[in-house]
Write a structure and sequence with these properties.
The protein is an alpha+beta fold. The chain folds into three domains: about 100 residues, Penicillin-binding protein 2a (Domain 2) (Alpha-Beta Complex); about 80 residues, no CATH class; about 325 residues, 3-Layer(aba) Sandwich (Beta-lactamase), CATH 3.40.710.10. Helices cover about 35% and strands about 20% of the residues. The strands form seven sheets. Strands 2, 3, 4, 5 and 10 form a five-stranded mixed sheet that branches. α4 packs antiparallel against α6 and α13 crosses α18. The longest helix has 27 residues. The protein starts with a helix and ends in a 28-residue tail after the last helix. The relative contact order is 0.10. It is found in: Membrane. One of its GO terms (biological process) is cell wall organization.
Length: about 600
């Protein structure tokens, strides 16, 4: 009794010690085991087109994780129990082994439940049989392993219903892109951690991503949430971003471009549709593209937004701007003729030539026939500084700053470095480089009475401050000249659109590879403006290395015609070239025959 009383006294003293003197320390230890700080993921903002239609949205998903060491230990323990009870059962054969049989049955059931759980997880995550066990073993000494990221809620729930306490889950969000590959290069994509890594997702990541919150919760021994104790940091959802893109025009531009690239067996292609009034980009498509909803099948080279990042020599599409520069420099008038005979110009070893001798041509005919000799002679009328300043005002040599990441500046060397050959070659689009977006932007003033609008991929409520880069008279004169390109006999006949007057220019630029121009590797392009009488849209098309048609008029102009026609229809822009109906001829009423009339 004395011994029992001593033990009870010791226990009471120990209890009092823990309660009075160790309470704070024990509470901290309990909190370490039960209290957890949980990150509340921010809901990423949507990317919307100009009409509020979604181009990128977030949907809730779950990620499953585990401590591979704990899961392997649990499996090993159940396996040992199963094997041990089987040995005991075998040893009691012939004796009264009912208890051993029952123990063996329970161990077998527990082990079978774990094994069936493993297989169910493998099926849900599309793993081969035995794949989960291999993944756990390959984790080595790691204490954290994702079993699956961004799983649909029903798939994650089916795995959680297996009741394996070693598996935990985290609620996250996964990006979904309704337009898929149609707008992949514009919208871009996020990584598994929901951070923007391409396109607008990357450019506006801080705005779209918001800010994660934190809350303190109590969890039980199995890691299940018991209650939320306190909110430490408020979660701030991401903001929505409105693009200037019209998803209807975006879809048709991509569809027509993809079809044409396939028909020509071309290497790649790009299309840009620009609103000349506001400077907004209504569509931008590239082929080949990628589907941001399916990251597993994406090759890194597909990420490149060619219309923004790739630079090349513009070729003949620069000729209208050469004429505009000469008109601005007042070295010629709009009604002059340029002598292109004998169809070539010699600069020592360097020769500029036309397909044939066009003789003396007007400026509209110079563009219609795309005369290199004529464009060179126009460029040589200006001094280098005048030409350079004009091109610089149009944005050559500077990034367009349209809102994309990775916009190229192109290349425009200082006029002090230009020799006579450089001056001549700049006249017909060689010796400098631009992106398709830069070139499209440079055509904008021709459609806006000489005003260069700030180019933007984001929707603007009010157009930015424009810059007057050429006289309105110059822009209108060059626009009228460009209409000859799409008329019969011009290089851009296939760019005609029924009911509308079109002003445009074809281009074919040979690639400069290994210090020489390759006549079998070239870029074809067409850039046009419509309606020519009341300009609204600028559409540019570029086809990289077509294997069938070898000119901008044959390869790129058909895409322009289809995209421009549908864009004008969708924007409800009235025609300006409808045929004038002839007045009906009404026959005169018959005169009554009077007696004696002859």
């Amino acid at each position: 009794m004395l011994a029992l009383l001593v033990v009870i006294g010791i226990l009471l003293l120990r209890a009092a010690w823990l309660e009075i003197f160790q309470q704070e320390w024990l509470q901290k230890q309990a909190d370490k085991r039960q209290l957890r700080e949980v990150v509340v993921p921010a809901y990423r903002g949507m990317i919307l087109d100009r009409h509020g239609e979604p181009m990128a949205i977030s949907s809730p998903v779950e990620s499953l994780w585990c401590n591979p060491q704990d899961l392997l230990k649990a499996r090993e323990k159940l396996q040992k129990q199963y094997e041990l009870t089987r040995k005991v059962t075998d040893a009691t054969v012939g004796n009264d082994g009912a208890e051993a049989d029952e123990a063996h049955e329970l161990a077998a059931t527990d082990f079978a439940r774990l094994e069936s759980g493993f297989r169910a997880i493998e099926k849900a995550l599309a793993m081969p049989e035995g794949g989960l066990l291999k993944k756990l073993v390959d984790a080595g000494d790691k204490h954290f392993l994702y079993l699956g990221r961004h799983l649909p809620l029903e798939v994650a729930q089916s795995i959680k219903d297996l009741g394996l306490p070693e598996i935990g889950s985290t609620r996250e969000y996964r990006r979904y892109y309704p337009l898929a590959e149609t707008a992949g290069h514009v919208v871009g994509m996020t990584n598994l951690d929901d951070d923007g890594i391409e396109g607008i997702e990357k450019a506006k990541d801080s705005l779209l991503g918001g800010k994660n919150g934190k809350t303190r919760v109590v969890r039980d021994a199995n890691g299940r949430l018991v209650e939320s104790v306190v909110r430490l940091e408020e979660m701030q959802p991401g903001q929505d971003v409105y693009l200037s893109i019209d998803r209807r025009i975006q879809y048709l531009a991509y569809k027509e471009l993809k079809t044409r690239v396939s028909e020509l067996n071309a290497k790649a292609g790009s299309v840009v549709v620009l609103d000349a009034h506001s400077g907004e980009i209504l569509a931008m498509a590239n082929v080949p593209s990628f589907n941001p909803n399916n990251r597993e099948a994406i090759e890194p080279y597909l990420y490149r937004n060619r219309a923004v990042t790739d630079k090349s020599e513009p070729g003949s599409t620069l000729k209208p701007l050469t004429i505009a520069a000469a008109l601005e420099a007042r070295v010629l008038g709009a009604d002059v003729e340029i002598n292109t005979s004998p169809g070539k110009i010699n600069f020592g070893k360097y020769v500029v030539k036309d397909p044939k001798d066009y003789g003396s041509v007007s400026l509209p005919m110079l563009l219609a026939k795309s005369s290199n000799v004529g464009a060179s002679r126009v460029a040589l009328l200006m001094d280098a500084r005048q030409h350079w300043m004009f091109l610089s005002r149009l944005g050559f040599g500077r990034a367009p700053d349209a809102g994309f990441s990775g916009e190229t500046q192109g290349k425009l060397t200082n006029y002090a470095q230009w020799g006579k050959v450089d001056r001549a070659s700049h006249g017909y689009g060689y010796g400098l480089s631009t992106s398709l977006l830069q070139l499209t932007r440079a055509y904008g003033p021709l459609a806006a009475n000489g005003l260069l609008m700030p180019t933007n991929i984001y929707k603007v409520e009010q157009a930015g401050q424009p810059q007057q880069v050429m006289a309105p008279e110059t822009a209108r004169a060059v626009l009228r000249m460009m209409e000859a390109v799409v008329q019969k006999g011009g290089t851009g006949e296939k760019a005609m659109v029924d009911g509308y007057r079109i002003a445009g220019k074809t281009g074919t630029a040979y690639k400069y590879i290994n210090n020489s121009y390759r006549d079998d590797r070239y870029l074809t392009s067409f850039i046009g403006i419509a309606p020519a009488s009341r300009p609204r849209l600028v559409v540019s098309v570029q086809i990289d290395e077509p294997k069938v048609d070898d000119s901008g008029g044959r390869a790129a102009a058909p895409v322009f015609a289809k995209v421009m026609a549908e864009s004008l229809r969708l924007l409800d822009i009235p025609p300006d070239n409808l045929p004038v109906a002839k007045p009906a001829v009404v026959p005169a009423p018959a005169q009554p025959v009077t007696e004696g009339a002859t």
